[in-house]
Design a protein that fits this description.
By secondary structure, the chain is mainly alpha-helical. Helix 2 runs antiparallel to helix 5 and helix 8 runs antiparallel to helix 9. The longest helix is centred in the middle third of the chain and has 33 residues. The chain has a two-stranded antiparallel ribbon with strand order 1-4. Strands 2-3 form a two-stranded antiparallel sheet. The radius of gyration is 19 Å and the shape is globular. About 85% of the residues lie in helices and about 5% in strands. The mean pLDDT is about 85.
């Protein structure tokens, strides 16, 4: 039992550290390649902060643990809003000024509803997974188009400031890009092994482990980057990390896992986990979009309510585990 626990702890520590190095290396490499800051923020950072979820879910699906892959993706989406964004707003209220993010928020809602529609029949088939990846390709095309436009946008300004703080040379950027990716894969394999072993030992489904321990762990890079961003008054970057990560998780992470291992989707995932994910996503839209020409704003009260909702969801999960065990 000690070995799997150690594997989870060590795996998570290396995962978080290597994800941070990978994002820094990827962002610096992209800047040396001449990419506009907005494009780096929307594509490179969006992919980088979701890299832990992608690698963990792909490895889990490849090893025949689709529940862990699915739980990690949806659980991370829930944790990104209910924990990461909530804690960030409690530290400092978040104001959303970026017009790009105002466009992404309704897209996130629609994609979440599309994902729900695809698994409503209790299956994530190969066709469903391919549809998700095709929509992801369209989203990437739109993101690149938006990023290449440049222009004045607060998200672009925040990303430019963040890149200025990254003083890596070109060689260092390539080094950390490669090393970060290698460590991401290695730590993810360690984490998946420990999580599956713990689940089997306690008789808990790998879905529950994915929704809780693994989801929180793979979301820690978003928490770190959002807290750093909000302390530097880069509000749009803080919320952009969460929106981008959730879009990547819903489309790319679930899509790749489904292509590797088409899977049955338990009814409780639809009635419980999707309910929470859609609820959190709609809450983010209402709080972050802004209406009547006013910028969106997530206050400390809003952050506190989001965090309390996540605590309630966690208790819901615990109750379902206890009822199953009895």
């Amino acid at each position: 039992m000690l070995m799997p626990l150690a594997a989870i702890v060590v795996g998570l520590i290396i995962l978080v550290w290597s994800a941070d190095r990978f994002v820094d290396g990827a962002s610096a490499t992209a800047r040396y390649a001449g990419m506009p800051p907005l494009l780096i923020g929307m594509v490179i950072v969006g992919f980088g902060t979701s890299a832990p979820e992608i690698v963990v879910s792909v490895i889990a699906a490849w090893q025949g643990n689709p529940g862990l892959a699915l739980g990690n993706a949806y659980g991370s989406n829930i944790a990104n809003i209910g924990v990461i964004l909530a804690i960030t707003a409690l530290i400092s209220p978040i104001t959303v000024n970026s017009q790009v993010l105002r466009k992404e928020l309704p897209i996130l809602v629609l994609i979440s509803l599309l994902s729900l529609g695809l698994v409503w029949n209790g299956m994530l088939s190969l066709l469903d997974a391919i549809i998700l990846l095709l929509v992801f390709a369209l989203y990437m095309f739109w993101s690149i188009k938006q990023g290449m436009k440049g222009g004045a946008d607060s998200l672009s300004e925040d990303e430019s400031e963040a890149l200025d703080d990254n003083s890596m040379s070109a060689k260092q950027a390539w080094f950390w890009l490669v090393v970060g990716l290698v460590l991401l894969v290695a730590s993810s394999r360690l984490l998946v092994w420990g999580a599956v072993d713990i689940a089997q030992a306690f008789g808990v489904s790998d879905l529950i482990i994915g929704l809780t321990i693994v989801a929180i762990g793979t979301s820690l890079p978003e928490l770190a980057s959002s807290i750093v961003a909000i302390r530097k008054n880069q509000h749009d970057l803080a919320i952009g990390n969460v929106i981008g990560s959730n879009l990547f998780n819903t489309l790319a992470v679930v899509g790749l896992a489904g292509v590797i291992h088409p899977m049955a989707v338990p009814s409780e995932v639809i009635s419980r986990d999707f309910t929470m994910m859609i609820g959190f996503t709609l809450s983010l839209f209402v709080l972050g979009y802004g209406f009547k020409g006013r910028p969106g704003r997530i206050t400390r009260l809003g952050g506190g309510l989001l965090l309390l909702s996540y605590v309630g969801y966690t208790l819901w999960l615990a109750q379902s585990v206890l009822s199953t065990a009895s």
